[in-house]
Amino acid sequence: MKTFTLPLAALVAISALAPSYAVIYSASNSAIGTPGGDRFQHQVGLDYALDVLEKGSSSFWYAFAQQNETDRKNVTEITVTITQSMIGISDNVNGDIRVNSKYIGNFSGDVKEEFTGIVYYELARALQWDGQGQAPAGLLTGVADFFRLKAGYAPRIRS
Ligand SMILES: *[C@@H]1O[C@H](CO)[C@@H](O)[C@H](O)[C@H]1NC(C)=O
Ligand SMILES: *[C@@H]1O[C@H](CO)[C@@H](O)[C@H](O)[C@H]1NC(C)=O
Ligand SMILES: *[C@@H]1O[C@H](CO)[C@@H](O)[C@H](O)[C@H]1NC(C)=O
Predict the structure, then answer these.
(1) Which residues have C-beta within 8 Å of that of residue 83, sequence separation ≥ 6?
(2) For this UniProt entry, which residues form the secretion signal (predicted)?
(3) What is the mean pLDDT of each run of 10 residues along the chain (159 residues)?
(4) Closest ligand 2 atom to the C-alpha of 68?
(5) Does the domain at residues 20-150 carry the CATH identifier 1.10.390.10?
(6) Of all protein residues, whose CA lies closest to atom 3 belonging to ligand 3?
(7) Nearest-ligand number for the alpha carbon of 107
(8) Which of helix, strand or coil describes residue 99?
(9) The whole model's pTM is what?
(10) Domain boundaries, the chain
C-alpha cells in the first residue's frame, strides 16, 4: 500500500500546477420588483440562465472546433445580470453580460427564447478570439450573430 502514496501525491501536485481553463458561471437578477425583473423571474429564471451559459459555451467551443481547452480563449468567469440600469438591450465587458430588464418587460413574444438568443450572442462575444484586438468589429459581431442564428435563436428585433 505504501508504494502508492508517493505517485498519488505527485499526481495531485502536477494537476494543481497545470494551467486551468475552468469557467465559473453565475447569474443574478438585480431588477426584482420591476416589471421586467419580475417577468424574468417568472418566465426565465436564474437556473435557466445558468444553464444557458453552460450549454451555450459548450456549443460555442463545439461550433468553432475548440473542444481542446488549449485552443480556447482564457475566460475564467462569465456572469449574466438582469438590470434596469443600462441603455440598450444587452452588453458585455470581459464576460460580464448584462441584459436590460426594461427590454424583457416590454418584449412581446417568447421572452425565454429571446433571452437565450441574447445570451448566445454575448457569449460568443466573450469567448471569441479577436486577433489580439485587431479583428474588425463587423467581423466579430457577424460571427456572434451567426452563432446565435445557427443555434436557432434568430433575433426577432434588430438593435
Ligand atoms: C487563465 O487566466 C487565469 C487568471 O488570469 C490564470 O489563473 C490561469 O492560469 C490562466 N489559464 C491559462 C491556461 O493560461
Ligand atoms: C490539446 O492540445 C495540446 C496542445 O496542442 C496537446 O498537447 C494535447 O494533446 C491536446 N489534447 C487533446 C485531448 O487532444
Ligand atoms: C418599457 O420600456 C420603457 C422605456 O424604456 C420603460 O420605461 C418601461 O418600464 C418598460 N416596461 C416594462 C414593463 O418593463
Answers:
(1) 30, 31, 98, 99, 100, 101
(2) 1-22
(3) 41 48 92 97 97 96 94 95 97 97 96 97 96 93 94 72
(4) 1
(5) yes
(6) 102
(7) 3
(8) strand
(9) 0.86
(10) 20-150
